[in-house]
Amino acid sequence: MTFIVERAGIGSSLQDRGRPGSGHLGVGPSGAFDRDALRQVNALLGNAPGDAAVETYGDLTLLAGAPHVIAVTGGVGTVTIDGRSVPHGRAVPIAAGQRLAIGLATTGMRVYLGVSGGFAARAELGSLSSDTLSGLGPPPLAVGQSVMTGAGRAIPALDDIPPLIRTGGVDVDVVLGPRDDWFTDESVRRLLDTAWTLSAASDRIGLRLDGPALERSVVVELPSEPVVRGGIQVTPAGQPVVFGPDHPVTGGYPVIAVVVDSHTDRLAQVRPGDSVRLHRRT
Amino acid sequence: MNILPCGDRAVLIECDTLHEAQTWFAALREHAEVVLGARTVLVRGDLRASRELIDRTDPSASPVDTGHVVEISVTYDGADLAEVADLTGLTADGVVEAHTGTAWTVAFGGFAPGFAYLVGGDPRLHVPRRSSPRTRVPAGSVGLAGEFSGVYPRESPGGWQLIGRTTLRMWDVDREPPALLVAGTTVRFVAR
Fold it and tell me: Which residues belong to any copy of the Carboxyltransferase domain (chain A) (predicted)?
């Protein structure tokens, strides 16, 4: 049960629920950036919630080596099987020898392709997520590669998962700290008042936010300390960087605030140039 | 000791010294998901449960040293060896003697799988990170930054001052544990 990769796409990797709980080994959580989209695609296919899917920006073509049932969630773009349009968020069959093509997302950023039975690969530390920082897990999808799948499951009768309709940016809640007191009061206000712009220099390790520089009131070097997904580290130049799933386990710059865990998934679907607004949750 | 907020799923215990943080880490690691930093311990989980756990924990009750010793053979020809000599006022040979002359201890991991922050070395070797990080540091590079020494487990960007290299594998996913250096291990560097 396989697919052959004919076009590898952009940023295409296998992602499951990652490697939580290995921080003491220096291993970050990794896993799907948009965990809701991963859960949805697996639910449509009758899979376990954490089965592996392909996370991609699109431009991906796979040749089915066997009959499968697939579904696509997350970012929305053109998806076809042998040129025929595939609806977003619905389980659909693909026959052996047919080509599945996923275009670039035009709404949202990251597309999740699931298959009944889940994708299969060699797990490392209990997960087959590709961690782009540490190199754990299988490498990103490459042209000519066979991607294995598990045994197909019974497909549940479910309504379609509606496509993302949000465009033009997101709002997320943050908890100030642990190092908000290392910044001027004005800079903490600026963090919360600014419509930040997502920089194109963003990836699964961190999302860089463009806007006014944030200034430190404490300028000594921070002893390295543990960081979390959603932590907003501020570079020496004053630029906020929100940690994604492949973040390092410890960081050397102060974290001014942390995006609440359930809102970090929204950040997976922000497009470069779109706005990110941060709201304080106490 | 302070407890600082770290989002809605974790708190950060802030200590005065690395040793105090190590004792908290040792006391909590059986009871919660914890990650150690240089002065801090991250405790993951429900916020109220974490605070209650911290309240009823005596950090002085657990030993931090595992008693395990690892020897690391190093070729001291790093790109920053001359700069480290300048910064420390030592000769290049003096840097090597200082680095091999005292035992180091693994304080905590982080930065990358298998990367260990080593402490307890010769205090003359305290040097700042490079002002501009390298985009590519080869695997096995041995570096210095602040009070720490460390070995890059794989090629990555990095801002530490590089003094040498080793061929030892710091991270091997088929080994248990995969990290050669875990918290509490004693490390001796040997010049070759």
Answer: 24-282
Token pair recorded at residue B32: 């919660």
Equal fold, B2-56 vs B69-191? no
Q: Which of B1, B3, B9, B44 to mutate to test the interface with A (most CBs of A within 10 A)?
A: B9
Distance from CA of A84 to the nearest CA of B (A): 43
Q: Which fold has domain B2-56?
A: Gyrase A; domain 2 (3.30.1360)
Residues counted in chain B: 192
Q: For residues B148, B154, B159 and B163, what is the CA-based torsion angle, rounded to 10 degrees? A: 60
**Domain boundaries B69-191, corresponding CATH code:** 2.40.100.10
Question: Quick check: is A275 in a domain?
Answer: yes
Interface contact B6-A178, CB threshold 8 A:
yes
- Structural domain including A246 reads 170-280
Contact criterion met (CB below 8 Å) for A139 and A78:
no
Q: What angle do CA B113, B148, A208 make, to 5 degrees?
A: 55
B66, B173, B176, best to mutate vs chain A, most A CBs in 10 Å: B173
Contacts of B127 in chain A (CB under 8 A): none
Please give the DSSP secondary-structure letter assigned to residue B91.
-
Judge whether B13 and B40 are in contact, CB under 8 Å. Answer: yes
Per-residue pLDDT tens over the stretch B75-128: 999 999 999 999 999 999 999 999 999 999 998 887 778 899 999 999 999 999
Domain spans of chain B, in order of start: 2-56, 69-191
Beta bridge partners of A43: none
From chain B, pick out residues whose CB is under 8 angstroms from the CB of A133: 112, 156
Same domain, A135 and A190: no
Does residue A263 lie within any of the structural domains? yes
Residue from the list A27, A175, A281 with its beta carbon closest to the beta carbon of B113: A27
CA–CA distance, A2 with A4 (Å, rounded to integer): 7
**Mutation site for B-interface testing, chosen from A125, A179, A224 by largest number of B Cβ within 10 Å:** A224
Measuring CA to CA, which residue among A76, A71, A12 is closest to residue A41? Answer: A71
Contact at CB, B4 and A125, closer than 8 angstroms: no
Q: Per-residue pLDDT for chain A (282 aa), expressed as one digit of tens each?
A: 899 999 999 999 999 999 998 888 888 999 999 999 999 999 999 999 999 999 999 999 999 999 999 999 999 999 999 999 999 999 999 999 999 999 999 999 999 999 999 999 999 999 999 999 888 999 999 999 999 999 999 999 988 998 887 777 899 999 999 999 999 999 999 999 999 999 999 999 999 999 999 999 999 989 889 999 999 999 999 999 999 999 999 998 999 999 999 999 999 999 999 999 999 997
Prediction ipTM score: 0.93
